[in-house]
Amino acid sequence: PRKQLIVVTPTFTRAAQAYFLLRLGQVLRLVPPPLLWIVVEMNVVSMETADILRKSGVMYRHLVCTKNSTDIKDRGVHQRNTALEHIEHHKLDGIVYFADDDNIYSLELFHSLRQIRRFGTWPVAMLAQSKNKAILEGPVCNGSQVIGWHTNEKSKRLRRFHVDMSGFAINSTILWDPKRWRRPTLRPIRQLDTVKEGFQETTFIEQVVEDESQMEGVPFGCSRIINWHLHLEARDLIYPKGWLFDKKLEAD
Ligand code: UDP
Protein backbone atom coordinates (compact mmCIF):
# COMPACT_ATOMS: atom_id res chain seq x y z
CA PRO A 1 0.00 0.00 0.00
CA ARG A 2 1.08 3.57 -0.67
CA LYS A 3 2.26 5.57 2.33
CA GLN A 4 -0.14 8.31 3.48
CA LEU A 5 1.08 11.89 3.09
CA ILE A 6 0.01 14.49 5.66
CA VAL A 7 0.41 17.99 4.21
CA VAL A 8 0.22 20.84 6.75
CA THR A 9 -0.67 24.32 5.48
CA PRO A 10 -1.05 27.43 7.64
CA THR A 11 -3.05 30.12 5.87
CA PHE A 12 -4.32 33.63 6.56
CA THR A 13 -6.45 36.29 4.91
CA ARG A 14 -4.71 38.50 2.40
CA ALA A 15 -4.97 39.37 -1.26
CA ALA A 16 -4.57 36.28 -3.45
CA GLN A 17 -5.22 33.84 -0.61
CA ALA A 18 -7.99 32.20 -2.62
CA TYR A 19 -5.64 31.89 -5.59
CA PHE A 20 -2.90 30.31 -3.44
CA LEU A 21 -5.22 27.76 -1.85
CA LEU A 22 -6.86 26.87 -5.15
CA ARG A 23 -3.50 26.36 -6.80
CA LEU A 24 -2.12 24.22 -3.99
CA GLY A 25 -5.36 22.22 -3.84
CA GLN A 26 -5.11 21.48 -7.54
CA VAL A 27 -1.53 20.23 -7.18
CA LEU A 28 -2.51 18.00 -4.26
CA ARG A 29 -5.44 16.70 -6.32
CA LEU A 30 -2.88 15.31 -8.79
CA VAL A 31 -0.98 13.39 -6.09
CA PRO A 32 -1.98 9.73 -5.88
CA PRO A 33 -3.92 9.10 -2.62
CA PRO A 34 -3.82 8.57 0.30
CA LEU A 35 -3.11 12.19 1.12
CA LEU A 36 -4.52 14.24 4.00
CA TRP A 37 -4.38 18.04 3.75
CA ILE A 38 -4.45 19.76 7.15
CA VAL A 39 -5.22 23.45 6.69
CA VAL A 40 -4.95 25.65 9.77
CA GLU A 41 -6.38 29.13 10.20
CA MET A 42 -5.94 31.56 13.07
CA ASN A 43 -8.81 32.26 15.51
CA VAL A 44 -11.71 31.47 13.17
CA VAL A 45 -12.49 28.97 10.45
CA SER A 46 -13.49 31.02 7.42
CA MET A 47 -16.34 30.13 5.07
CA GLU A 48 -14.24 31.01 2.05
CA THR A 49 -11.44 28.60 2.93
CA ALA A 50 -13.98 25.91 3.83
CA ASP A 51 -15.55 26.34 0.40
CA ILE A 52 -12.22 25.96 -1.43
CA LEU A 53 -11.35 22.85 0.61
CA ARG A 54 -14.74 21.28 0.00
CA LYS A 55 -14.41 21.75 -3.76
CA SER A 56 -10.76 20.65 -3.90
CA GLY A 57 -11.43 16.94 -4.20
CA VAL A 58 -8.65 16.35 -1.67
CA MET A 59 -9.17 14.65 1.69
CA TYR A 60 -8.72 17.42 4.27
CA ARG A 61 -9.12 18.60 7.82
CA HIS A 62 -9.82 22.26 8.46
CA LEU A 63 -8.44 23.31 11.85
CA VAL A 64 -8.33 26.54 13.81
CA CYS A 65 -5.52 27.74 16.05
CA THR A 66 -6.75 29.61 19.08
CA LYS A 67 -3.44 30.51 20.64
CA ASN A 68 -3.32 34.21 21.24
CA SER A 69 -0.54 35.74 19.23
CA THR A 70 0.02 39.26 18.05
CA ASP A 71 3.62 38.70 17.05
CA ILE A 72 3.86 39.34 13.32
CA LYS A 73 7.09 37.32 13.18
CA ASP A 74 5.23 34.12 14.09
CA ARG A 75 4.10 33.66 10.48
CA GLY A 76 2.15 30.44 10.84
CA VAL A 77 4.24 28.84 13.61
CA HIS A 78 1.37 28.36 16.07
CA GLN A 79 -0.83 27.03 13.29
CA ARG A 80 1.77 24.40 12.40
CA ASN A 81 1.96 23.45 16.08
CA THR A 82 -1.84 23.04 16.14
CA ALA A 83 -1.49 20.56 13.28
CA LEU A 84 1.33 18.71 15.07
CA GLU A 85 -0.83 18.40 18.20
CA HIS A 86 -3.70 17.09 16.09
CA ILE A 87 -1.46 14.47 14.42
CA GLU A 88 -0.08 13.43 17.80
CA HIS A 89 -3.46 13.33 19.54
CA HIS A 90 -5.17 11.29 16.81
CA LYS A 91 -2.07 9.19 16.12
CA LEU A 92 -2.30 9.91 12.40
CA ASP A 93 0.10 7.70 10.49
CA GLY A 94 1.98 9.16 7.54
CA ILE A 95 4.76 11.39 6.28
CA VAL A 96 4.29 14.94 7.59
CA TYR A 97 5.23 17.82 5.29
CA PHE A 98 4.88 21.58 5.91
CA ALA A 99 3.61 23.20 2.70
CA ASP A 100 2.98 26.94 2.84
CA ASP A 101 0.08 28.09 0.69
CA ASP A 102 2.14 30.39 -1.55
CA ASN A 103 5.05 28.21 -2.67
CA ILE A 104 5.63 26.11 -5.79
CA TYR A 105 5.58 22.33 -5.57
CA SER A 106 6.32 19.64 -8.15
CA LEU A 107 4.67 16.25 -8.29
CA GLU A 108 8.15 14.77 -8.01
CA LEU A 109 8.33 16.26 -4.52
CA PHE A 110 5.27 14.34 -3.35
CA HIS A 111 6.57 11.21 -5.03
CA SER A 112 9.87 11.63 -3.12
CA LEU A 113 8.05 12.04 0.20
CA ARG A 114 6.84 8.47 -0.10
CA GLN A 115 10.43 7.18 -0.09
CA ILE A 116 11.08 8.62 3.37
CA ARG A 117 11.29 6.28 6.32
CA ARG A 118 12.25 8.48 9.26
CA PHE A 119 13.39 11.95 8.27
CA GLY A 120 13.89 13.16 4.70
CA THR A 121 15.44 16.39 3.50
CA TRP A 122 16.37 18.04 0.19
CA PRO A 123 17.64 21.36 -1.15
CA VAL A 124 15.06 24.14 -1.68
CA ALA A 125 15.51 27.07 -4.05
CA MET A 126 14.46 30.36 -2.46
CA LEU A 127 13.46 33.30 -4.60
CA ALA A 128 13.03 36.77 -3.17
CA GLN A 129 11.24 39.55 -5.01
CA SER A 130 13.80 42.12 -3.97
CA LYS A 131 16.89 40.16 -4.99
CA ASN A 132 17.56 38.85 -8.45
CA LYS A 133 18.99 35.59 -7.35
CA ALA A 134 17.94 32.19 -6.16
CA ILE A 135 19.40 30.92 -2.92
CA LEU A 136 19.84 27.24 -2.19
CA GLU A 137 19.29 25.84 1.26
CA GLY A 138 19.41 22.18 2.25
CA PRO A 139 21.58 19.09 2.17
CA VAL A 140 24.52 18.11 0.00
CA CYS A 141 24.30 14.35 -0.48
CA ASN A 142 26.24 11.32 -1.50
CA GLY A 143 23.45 9.09 -2.71
CA SER A 144 20.91 9.35 0.06
CA GLN A 145 23.53 10.11 2.71
CA VAL A 146 23.66 13.72 3.92
CA ILE A 147 27.30 14.87 3.91
CA GLY A 148 27.00 18.66 4.13
CA TRP A 149 24.78 21.72 3.76
CA HIS A 150 24.16 24.53 1.34
CA THR A 151 24.25 27.68 3.45
CA ASN A 152 23.31 31.30 2.81
CA GLU A 153 23.54 34.71 4.49
CA LYS A 154 20.88 33.73 6.98
CA SER A 155 22.87 30.65 7.96
CA LYS A 156 25.90 32.60 9.09
CA ARG A 157 24.13 32.63 12.42
CA LEU A 158 25.04 29.30 13.90
CA ARG A 159 22.41 26.81 12.93
CA ARG A 160 22.94 23.10 13.33
CA PHE A 161 20.91 22.09 10.27
CA HIS A 162 20.46 24.34 7.23
CA VAL A 163 17.00 23.27 6.19
CA ASP A 164 14.04 25.32 4.99
CA MET A 165 10.55 24.76 6.40
CA SER A 166 9.55 23.34 3.01
CA GLY A 167 12.71 21.21 2.70
CA PHE A 168 12.06 18.32 5.06
CA ALA A 169 9.45 15.76 6.06
CA ILE A 170 9.14 13.34 8.96
CA ASN A 171 7.43 10.10 9.77
CA SER A 172 4.48 11.06 11.99
CA THR A 173 5.09 8.11 14.32
CA ILE A 174 8.11 10.02 15.66
CA LEU A 175 5.58 12.40 17.22
CA TRP A 176 3.50 9.82 19.06
CA ASP A 177 5.61 6.65 19.21
CA PRO A 178 9.18 7.78 19.97
CA LYS A 179 10.17 4.36 21.33
CA ARG A 180 9.84 2.89 17.89
CA TRP A 181 12.66 5.20 16.81
CA ARG A 182 14.73 4.76 19.98
CA ARG A 183 14.56 8.50 20.33
CA PRO A 184 15.62 9.94 23.66
CA THR A 185 12.44 11.43 25.12
CA LEU A 186 14.16 14.43 26.57
CA ARG A 187 11.61 16.92 25.32
CA PRO A 188 8.19 15.27 25.07
CA ILE A 189 6.41 17.83 22.93
CA ARG A 190 8.02 18.28 19.58
CA GLN A 191 6.87 21.71 18.60
CA LEU A 192 8.22 24.48 16.50
CA ASP A 193 10.16 27.13 18.35
CA THR A 194 8.55 30.54 18.26
CA VAL A 195 11.36 32.54 19.75
CA LYS A 196 14.18 32.89 17.29
CA GLU A 197 13.32 33.56 13.69
CA GLY A 198 15.46 31.53 11.31
CA PHE A 199 16.04 28.88 13.97
CA GLN A 200 12.59 27.29 13.92
CA GLU A 201 13.48 24.53 11.50
CA THR A 202 16.76 23.55 13.10
CA THR A 203 15.32 23.63 16.64
CA PHE A 204 12.53 21.33 15.58
CA ILE A 205 14.78 18.97 13.63
CA GLU A 206 17.25 18.72 16.51
CA GLN A 207 14.41 17.20 18.56
CA VAL A 208 13.61 14.65 15.89
CA VAL A 209 17.03 13.35 14.82
CA GLU A 210 20.40 13.20 16.50
CA ASP A 211 22.58 13.87 13.47
CA GLU A 212 22.92 13.55 9.70
CA SER A 213 23.24 9.76 9.91
CA GLN A 214 19.53 9.55 10.75
CA MET A 215 18.56 11.63 7.70
CA GLU A 216 17.68 10.51 4.21
CA GLY A 217 18.53 12.79 1.32
CA VAL A 218 15.87 12.71 -1.40
CA PRO A 219 15.63 12.41 -4.33
CA PHE A 220 18.74 10.18 -4.64
CA GLY A 221 21.79 12.47 -4.76
CA CYS A 222 19.78 15.57 -3.78
CA SER A 223 20.80 17.10 -7.07
CA ARG A 224 17.35 18.23 -8.24
CA ILE A 225 15.15 21.10 -7.13
CA ILE A 226 11.68 19.79 -6.39
CA ASN A 227 10.09 22.85 -4.77
CA TRP A 228 10.57 26.59 -4.71
CA HIS A 229 10.12 28.91 -1.74
CA LEU A 230 8.89 32.34 -2.82
CA HIS A 231 8.95 35.39 -0.61
CA LEU A 232 5.92 37.15 -1.99
CA GLU A 233 4.35 40.30 -0.71
CA ALA A 234 0.76 40.28 -1.89
CA ARG A 235 -0.60 42.85 0.54
CA ASP A 236 -0.76 45.87 -1.70
CA LEU A 237 -2.23 44.47 -4.88
CA ILE A 238 -4.19 47.03 -6.87
CA TYR A 239 -7.32 45.75 -8.58
CA PRO A 240 -8.94 47.14 -11.75
CA LYS A 241 -11.51 49.86 -11.20
CA GLY A 242 -15.07 48.63 -10.85
CA TRP A 243 -14.24 45.09 -9.75
CA LEU A 244 -16.21 43.60 -6.91
CA PHE A 245 -14.52 41.38 -4.37
CA ASP A 246 -15.37 38.78 -1.83
CA LYS A 247 -14.01 39.50 1.62
CA LYS A 248 -11.29 36.94 1.03
CA LEU A 249 -9.85 38.63 -2.01
CA GLU A 250 -9.54 42.06 -0.53
CA ALA A 251 -6.16 43.37 0.45
CA ASP A 252 -6.04 43.62 4.22
N1 UDP B 1 0.96 32.63 7.47
C1 UDP B 1 -0.11 32.68 8.37
N2 UDP B 1 -0.25 33.79 9.15
C2 UDP B 1 0.60 34.86 9.09
C3 UDP B 1 1.68 34.80 8.19
C4 UDP B 1 1.83 33.67 7.40
O1 UDP B 1 -0.90 31.76 8.43
O2 UDP B 1 0.43 35.85 9.82
C5 UDP B 1 1.12 31.44 6.63
C6 UDP B 1 1.11 31.74 5.14
O3 UDP B 1 -0.20 31.63 4.61
C7 UDP B 1 2.02 30.67 4.60
C8 UDP B 1 3.02 30.46 5.73
O4 UDP B 1 2.37 30.90 6.91
O5 UDP B 1 1.32 29.47 4.33
C9 UDP B 1 4.34 31.21 5.54
O6 UDP B 1 4.06 32.57 5.33
P1 UDP B 1 4.89 33.47 4.32
O7 UDP B 1 4.96 32.78 3.00
O8 UDP B 1 4.32 34.85 4.34
O9 UDP B 1 6.31 33.49 5.02
P2 UDP B 1 7.71 33.46 4.30
O10 UDP B 1 7.74 32.15 3.58
O11 UDP B 1 7.74 34.62 3.35
O12 UDP B 1 8.66 33.56 5.43
Provide a quick synopsis of the model.
It is an enzyme of class 2 (transferase). Involved in the synthesis of glucuronoxylan hemicellulose in secondary cell walls. This protein has helices at 17-29, 47-56, 77-89, 107-113, 173-176, 200-208; strands spanning 5-10, 35-42, 59-65, 95-98, 104-105, 119-121, 124-128, 134-142, 145-150, 168-171, 216-217, 227-231.
Task: Pick out its properties.
single chain; 252 residues; alpha/beta; seven-stranded mixed beta sheet; five-stranded mixed beta sheet; 24% strand; binds uridine-5'-diphosphate
Q: What portion of residues is helical?
A: 10-25%
Give a short account of the largest sheet: 7 strands, mixed
Which consecutive residue ranges, at least 5 long each, have pLDDT under 50?
Answer: none
Question: Roughly how many Å apart are the termini?
Answer: 44 Å
- Estimate the mean pLDDT confidence: 87
Rg calc: 18 Å
Query: Into which percentage range does the β-strand content fall?
Result: 15-25%
Give, in spatial order, the strands making up the sheet with the most strands: 3-2-1-4-10-6-11
